User: What shape does this take?
Amino acid sequence: MKTDRQPMTVAGKARLEAELKQLVQVERPAVIRAIEEARGHGDLSENADYDAAKERQAFVEARIGDIQGKLANAEVVDTSELKSEKVIFGAHVKLLDLETDEELNYQIVGEDEADVKGGKISVFSPLARSMIGKAKGDLVELKSPKGERELEVIDFYFK
Assistant: This one.
């Protein structure tokens, strides 16, 4: 099975590593203690604490595996070192909605870093895919469930 490299910013990698550390060093030992404590309460077949602890353990272990896989397949990009005449991964892009005159600001980031309210959109999102390769002044045509929108790339930069 071939896995593709996934782009990720340095900050995105640091957040995943911090979450992994928290899960391995804090959550996993806490779940193990909860399971041991629940076992001490007797009959496991009717023990809600034991069931809850085992469920939490499954979640924690799955998340640890998920993060380890993402970090193993990560292609970490230091956006502060990027230079391009066109919009690429990592760019902070200023757009103008030509219909509403609203200015929009987004950074194109890795899938796990996306936070639309925080101005970060996944490189795989329709908007990011339509912006990549555009230059200052270019029009971006976005087809969405709400209809088609035309946006203009006002500016973009890397930091």
Summary: Helices lie at 10-39, 48-72, 126-131.
